[in-house]
Amino acid sequence: MVIKGKFLGKLLAGGMLLFVSHLFAQSNNWEHPHWENQYVIQENKMPARATSFSYREVDAAVEMDRDQAEVKFLNGDWKFNFTPDSKNRSIDFVRTEFDASGWDDIKVPSCWEMQGYGTPIYTNDVYPFTPNAPFIDRTNPVGSYIKEFTLPADWTDQQVIIHFGGVSSAFYCWLNGEYVGYSQGSRLPSEFDLSKHLKQGNNKLAVQVIRWSDGSYLEDQDHWRMSGIHREVFLMAQPKVHINDFFVRTPLTDNYTKALLQVRPEIVARGVSYDGWHLEVELLDAANNSVLEKAMRAPVKNIINEWYPPRDNVYFALMEAEVNNPRLWSAEDPYLYKTVFKLLNDKDELVEVRSTKIGFKEYAHTSEGVFTVNGEPVKLIGVNRHDHSDTGGKTVTREEMKKDIELMKQFNINALRAAHYPNDPYVYELCDEYGLYVMDEANIETHGIGGKLSNDITWNPAFMDRVIRMVERSKNHASIFSWSLGNESGCGPNHASAAGWIKDYDPTRLVHYEGAQGQPMHPDYIPTNSPKWGTNYYRTMANPTDPLYVDMISRMYPSLEQLTTLLNNDYIKRPVVMCEYAHAMGNSLGNLKEYWDIVYDHPKAAGGFIWDWIDQGIRAEDEDGTVFWKYGGDFGDVPNLGNFCINGIINSDRSVKPQLEECKYVFQPIVFTGVDLQKGIVEVKSRMNFVSTGDYYFRWSVAEEGKELRNGRLDDLIIAPGESQTITLPLNKVKIKEGKEYWLRISMHHKQATLYSEAGFEVAKQQFLLHGAKEKAAVDFSGAKGLSYTENETTVQVKGKNFEMSWDKSTGQMMDYTYQGTTYIEKGPMANFWRSQTDNDTRGWKSHTAAAFWKDFAKLSPEVQLEVDQSNPSYLNLKVTQSYTEDLQINTIYKIDNKAQVQVTFDVAMSEDMSMPLRIGSQMEVNDDLQNMKFYGKGPWENYIDRAFAAEVDVYSGKVDDFVFHYVRPQESSNRTGVRWLQLTANNGKGILIKGMQPLSTSVWPWTMQNLTDARHINALEKAPYLTVNIDLIQVGVGGADTWSNKSKPIEQYRIKPGNHSYSYSIRPVK
């Protein structure tokens, strides 16, 4: 369980940081500007505090509508001037008389690169400048801003604070020509006291933002590097005696049936007597009813003049009350209370009100490493979320934030890692309200220089500042279960000191940091300079466990085998979490289910966070009006890592990708298992930890090859958390026809609308094959009568009454299939063993090298032999033998009857010593008029053999384009597995039907495979004069561990073994 430390007050922590900064400053000669000096983190910036607003009316505070608070938003148009080089920057614009009428207008918040100034840069670990900390050895752009405002009339005689939600990466602030302060740290608020600089009437605010600073060395995350005032700016007014901050804890007791409401407020008095003043704290339930018999009340003087003991430490709570039977907060039941803080003067008159939402919860782990919430074992089903908007860059609107959280809930995701920096406060509010477990992460990453700065004491104040400010701002959010010390910054005493502060200040959350690995004092530790280190680490991913200052054993991108080894490591007694896994770049996220089979099975596996949530593409439009998305290098940005930022499970515009559908199924909170399907017996098991199925109903149906025959609904199936029930469905009335397939589908739905879904929303599902069709010949041949066969030096031709087909004798390829005067197949089927490279293929296991033979297969010229056999009265038999090497021969057998029905059999004789092909299949060029597509197989979304658990066998229809999925960088796409038949028709209803003698893997593209391979963006895909139709026996999986090593190769069961393969399908006209 979490070890609870002593409480260290905020003032003590802040004082320590200031003392250390001051100590370092004495040894520095200050020859460099603030933004190239690690000793200068800020000037005049106010201490961090929890997010809250000052109200003057209780009702407004209870409603928590910030528009009713003492707030003036400065979002909107500002005057802006861009200076490409900081050497040419000027601060003349701060003067009150400066005329900025010639400057541009810019929206705030925004990133100036998205407004046409400077260059957005996408890079991963390579710094955008030559590393020489703390100096910036690169041209450093500067943006200067001016905003004029008038102070509200009733704000006189109050303290007025300006709040910058996020500025990248460092900035100075002036008001009315007077210097206000300096700040750095791009992802946390900066607040300054403007009171002494304000004047009646018009006020002139001037801000100068420096793109790169010494703080940028701590911000080397894998994302777009953009600049400017990218989060909200507003003014806040608060009385001279005001509630400045508060920290609320809710320790649970008596087997989680009771709780203490503990409050540690901070009140600030600015030169005003507070004798006789009091603070009252009320607790309200979700209906705004009082929970406590009477409000907690404390004299302000006792709060301001708190006594600290000379030994041990001060008790956390300055105000405390017991709460009986609180409704506990969890991601499944995110019940929130409100704490309302009322500041009363010596006449008991209301001076100020503040409020916050809280949840009664406990985060911990057992002595055996099981992660628990409120005492129950919980799996973290998470994603890594970057701030990204395809139109705003790092500036994300509140609507986009809300869309993110709604989608996560809709697709059974229950956890979010703030990768790799604190998010906007609104994200945490949404997570509290909707129910997501949050790993908040400090804005610290030094990937490009490893752990250098973590081991440099001169950088300790910067590390501490970022961690402390993160915790202080978000400490009251129920959703936050963990504070993460940052990402990929090595390991050293600066991380250890930050962890120590957190453990003392907030022992109610778990400390996380993936970089904290190895225990040097452990007898089984292997030094990192030992030849054994690499081999041992690759096998075990542990050395042999992690430093004690982290509460979770965190790893990135383990293989399935590595994860299993890690979970079985007896040295590890802490929860194991994959802070990043399933690198979802391009067409990826294969074998997700296999990861979660392990996680669900092992108590010590806490879960993981997919990398990552959203494709970080930037929306663009070409001269023809075609929309596409740009990535690294498309802006001339140097350095860049190309499309390595395109690895989300939702698209850049927040539309759903097929990968997200797979997530929803793998993560669903209900498991359906067939016990005796013929009798309709199904087990229903709940994976939920806190709520029953009482708020859900179940639906079942039986379909015959796409036609629903029977259905029913179960409204009263109540399954307790973690329990299961066996149900019997009335399937005895379903009449089974031999030769047909029958499918049982069962699903769970919301009875009522929720914050993120309508009533009836489907949460979980399962499809079962009730009865499979017995194998039979794909074609019922009608005879060979009337067929003619001719050949010349170059061509073989077969004709029937109303159709004809021809073959090229030199290549063995079918040249056409024409029926009633219309050529439906213009070329093919041609043997195909390759695919347009996915990102995992080319960046990861490098199939273009590992399977180079198959890449170049289409360039080979085989020895060809054609044989025609007319001895069978049912069909004409044409056999094409293509001999490529001693190791590879392909026999294609065409059986043709007089009704234009063709059975195609591919027999591939392949040596087992050959490299792995990427598919066993054939490709055809089909008449472009056949744009109406219908198939019976797994769908409706794209699926591959290692990412097909969510897809369902059914009949789907639409236009060809409806079944095409676009990846930002074009690559293999739009496949469907388990296809029984595929029909393509023109608008007149005529076309072809392709039917497999076994399930097929198919795709239809409006472009060529070569075009798909060569294109770097969607707008480079050119509509071909024909459709490319792939009819495969099998295609290898897409893989899903990472995108840079051999782990990206599909796992064993989703590979193709070199050797002999055979499959058949038929082609017939649709009249």
Describe this structure as you would to a colleague.
With 1071 residues, the chain is mainly beta. It contains 15 helices and 59 strands. Helix 6 runs parallel beside helix 7 (493-505). It is globular, with a radius of gyration of 33 Å. Residues 1-30 have low confidence and may be disordered.
Please outline the helices and strands.
Blueprint: H1 10-26, E1 42-43, H2 58-63, E2 71-73, E3 76-83, E4 104-108, E5 121-123, E6 142-150, E7 159-164, E8 167-168, E9 170-175, E10 178-184, E11 190-193, E12 202-210, E13 223-225, E14 228-229, E15 233-238, E16 241-249, E17 252-253, E18 258-269, E19 278-284, E20 296-299, H3 300-304, E21 319-324, E22 337-344, E23 350-358, E24 363-365, E25 371-373, E26 376-377, E27 380-385, H4 398-410, E28 415-418, H5 425-434, E29 437-441, H6 460-474, E30 480-484, H7 493-505, E31 510-512, H8 531-540, E32 553-556, H9 560-567, E33 576-581, H10 592-601, E34 605-610, E35 618-621, E36 627-630, H11 658-666, E37 670-676, E38 681-686, E39 696-704, E40 707-714, E41 724-728, E42 742-750, E43 762-771, E44 788-791, E45 795-799, E46 803-808, E47 814-819, E48 822-832, H12 839-845, H13 847-850, H14 852-855, E49 863-869, E50 876-885, E51 888-896, E52 902-910, E53 919-927, E54 932-939, E55 952-959, E56 976-985, E57 991-1005, H15 1009-1014, E58 1026-1035, E59 1061-1070
Parallel strand pairs: 27-28, 27-34, 28-29, 29-30, 30-31, 32-33, 33-34
Antiparallel strand pairs: 1-10, 2-15, 3-4, 3-6, 5-13, 6-12, 7-11, 7-15, 8-14, 9-10, 9-12, 16-18, 17-18, 18-21, 19-20, 19-22, 22-23, 24-25, 25-26, 35-36, 37-38, 38-41, 39-40, 39-42, 42-43, 44-45, 45-46, 46-47, 47-48, 48-53, 49-50, 50-51, 51-52, 52-59, 53-58, 54-55, 54-56, 56-57, 57-58, 57-59
Helix pairs in contact: 1-6, 4-5, 6-7
